[in-house]
Structure formats: structure tokens, C-alpha cells
Amino acid sequence: MVTDTLAQGLDTVVEDIAASLPRIALAVVVVAAAYVGIKIALLVVRSALDRGYAEDEKLVVDLLVTVVGVLMWFSVALVVLDVLGLGGIAASLGTATGFVALGIAYALSDMIADTVAGVYLLRDPDFNRGDTVTTGNVTGVVESIELRKTRLEVEGDTVVLPNGQVEKGWTLEGD
Predict the structure, then answer these.
(1) HSE value, Cβ hemisphere, 13 Å, CA-based, for 60
(2) pLDDT (tens digit per residue) in 33-56
């Protein structure tokens, strides 16, 4: 009796695996095609961004390419779950990820604002390394412009300011 139950259970598992093989094969094909497609898409995105950003702004290009890549692979993961017959889990995962992203965006809103401001400052032709600028109550020479911070030399000291604060209002001082 126990051996009959085990044999029946084993038969059911084998049948289920055999029935799932076409879906698993399709999922493998989807992942392989996605790999090639995403590699090509990221090369195109990087090429386009490299033309629009200077060499010293490579960090911005890397950030944007990484974000695009993560979004594409997440989309592939949801498609694979759907192909495997787990569409409900894919939908739930997509919804949950949206809520998590909202929470993270809210928690990191200042950092995101500084990063966006940093992109604007890096692209601004009037705000460059070596320029003397005034922002708020600080006047100094721009040492570096990074994604989140700008460093000014003020009387021999380095003052680090968040880009959101700098981008809100700065004045280029005459030479």
C-alpha cells in the first residue's frame, strides 16, 4: 500500500515535469533572446549617451545605462514568470516592486534631487571646474562637480555642498 502510494506520487511528479518541459524550454529561449537583445540595447544606449556627455561625465552615462539594464532585466524576469505559468506571481511582484520603488524614492528624495541637479550642473556650460562661483553665502573656486556634491575651495579649505543647494541659485563671478 505504501509502495503503491509512492509509485503513484512519483508518476504524478514525472507527468508534471514532462508537461512543464515546453514552458521551461520557452523560458530558456526567452532568456537567451533577452540576453542578446539587452546587450544590443545597452550598447545603443551607451553609444547615444556617450555622444551627449563629455568624458568627465562618464559617471552619469554609467548610472543611466545601469538603470536601463536593471529595468530591462526586471521586465524579462516578469515575462519568464508569466511564460512558466506564474502570471499571478509576476503581477504581484510587479505591483509590490512599484510600491517599494515609491517608498525608496520618497526616502531618497533629497539624494535623487541632488543627483538630478548634479546632471544639470555637469551639463551647464557656464559652471565648470576652476570657475569662481557664489552659491548661498559661499564664494569659492569649483574644485569638482560630482553627481551628488560640488566641492568649492574657499580660502584654502574645501567646502562640500549638495548639488540641489548649488543648482537652486549660483552666480558666476567675474575673473
Answers:
(1) 24
(2) 999 999 999 999 999 998 888 777
Place of cell 516578469: 78
| Residue corresponding to grid cell 505591483 | 95
Side chain identity, residue 70 = V
What is the three-state SS of the chain? CHHHHHHHHHHHHHHHHHHHHHHHHHHHHHHHHHHHHHHHHHHHHHHHHHHHCCHHHHHHHHHHHHHHHHHHHHHHHHHHHHHCCCHHHHHHHHHHHHHHHHHHHHHCHHHHHHHHHHHHHHHCCCCCCCCEEEECCEEEEEEEECCCEEEEEECCEEEEEEHHHHHHCEEECCC
- CA-closest candidate to residue 146, choices 81, 85, 19, 57: 57
What pLDDT, in 10s, does the model give residues 55-94? 777 888 898 999 999 999 999 999 999 999 888 999 999 9
Instruction: Return contacts of 135-143, CB within 8 angstroms, 24+ apart.
Output: 135/161, 135/165, 135/166, 135/169, 135/170, 135/171, 136/161, 136/165, 136/169, 139/173
| Residue 147 contacts residue 61 (beta carbons within 8 Å) | no
Is residue 144 predicted with pLDDT exceeding 80?
Answer: yes
- The radius of gyration of the chain's CA atoms, rounded to the nearest angstrom, is 26
